[in-house]
Amino acid sequence: MLYIHSFGSVEQVLGNLFNLQGNLCQVDARQISSHESLDRIDPFGFDDVLFYSFLNLHEYRFLDTFRHELERVHFIVDYVKRKKFRKLIILTAPGAFDHSDNLYLQHKGLIEQKFQSSGIPCLFLRVQAVTHAFRRIHNLHHLFYERAEGRYLIPQKNDLTIYSIQLDNLHDIVEKAMRDDSYGYYDAFDSISKLPDFLKEHAAHIPITRIAPLYLYFKSYLGNYLSPSILELFLRPVVPMYSYRTAKAFGVKLHQEETTEEETLQLDNPTIHLSPVFQPGGWKWSKI
Question: All domains of the chain, ordered by start, with CATH?
């Protein structure tokens, strides 16, 4: 498997888990600057599955990150088409949509489109927060941590819902996806919690301070906080996520919410997958 990632702390641990099987070519996405760079990074080209991950959300504090990632994905898509890869496994974001009014979600939607344009079967895993309980690390840490003050700064809002998945479970899903014929979109999470509870659980020693969003926007534009487009993710309505399809397809025991009308429809007809799509006027459900 060719594993291209943003080299955040959780992605390094995830790469180490795959390396235990000895079937991984691991590539830092920042090394990709041309078509030729991929040939140099993967000179033998024995891999036939691509796993693409960009979980280090702190990277998106710079606008250039969006442009550079799209350029890299363009090179990657050309590479996997030329090498005739069998399957693409992509970590994407809940609510990704190429016409979203949020830059980050729009960006993730465009990346999905680029990989789909390859004509190679794609599996998209919708992932928000990724954790490693033993190491007490997660990919949201640098978003909210104010180093100078030694504390987390979060918006003054009480209903910020975080959908998280442990690295071991994510590894198991990807490992199984490499071998089976699962394609399309899956919501990957095993825990649901409020943002303050999530941060306390994984970094109990770090104090948390609630700050007015307007002040956080101000810090964002000064470059001292996460980018405004990422901040907006934690001020938006909750994106519905359902784990029943993922648990059923990959045999991983994930968190089960109370049965809803949409879930009942899915269980009655497993060929129907309802996906939340944001359009002007609000969210609607669409079949995939």
Answer: 2-136+163-191+238-287 (3.40.50.720)
